[in-house]
Every structure is written in structure tokens, then in C-alpha cells.
Amino acid sequence: MEGDIAMTSRTITRQDLVDELHARTKVPKPQCQAFLTAMLNELERAIIAEDTVKLSGFGNFVVRSKKERVGRNPKTGKEVPITPRRVVTFRPSQILRERINGPRAR
To answer: In angstroms, rounded to a whole number, what is the distance separating the alpha carbons of residues 1 and 29?
Structure first.
């Protein structure tokens, strides 16, 4: 199964991650599931607390606050207010960007 995740353009599910973790580590699947759940819960907790989550070699998750603004309904052209909200953004590391796009020519 190694390499399947990186080489496909399908949706990767939680179960796919558990299966891959199990295949690579031979740790029982229930423990892999518990580990993945704990990791995702900690990421969620940190994001809700508006902490920046930095995963070296992968990227950063940051909570941004968006102000209220005026949008336009594309069908009718009518202006509508868009309420202020917080959004999570992901910024990939340079290492991940190079793996996706290849190294930049200098």
C-alpha cells in the first residue's frame, strides 16, 4: 500500500490513514485509530484556541479573522452582507511545495 496515498487523486479518508499507519508500523488497527483520533483532537483544540499549528516539513495551520464585507449574488447581482467569521488557512512548507511542484529553477 505504500505510495498509494501520494500517487492517487482520490479522497483520503480517516480509515485510509489508519490502514496506512497500520501497514507501515504493524501496530494494531485499534491503536492506530486511537493515535489518529488523539492527534486530530489535539489539532482541533489548538486551532479552536487560535494557536498556530506548525508541522515541520509539512506546513502551518493558522486561524484568520475575516471582517464583514459586501458580496454580490452572482445570479441576481444583488449586494449582500457577508458576516465576519474566522477561517482556518493552510500554508504548505517550502519542502512540501517543492515536492508538489519540483524545485524552482534559480
So the answer is: 15
pLDDT tens by residue, 66-94:
999 999 999 999 999 999 999 999 999 99
Q: Are 89 and 60 in contact (CB under 8 A)?
A: no
Q: How far is CA 84 from CA 64, 65, 67, in A?
A: 11, 7, 5
Q: Which domains does the chain have, with CATH numbers?
A: 1-49 (no CATH), 51-106 (4.10.520.10)
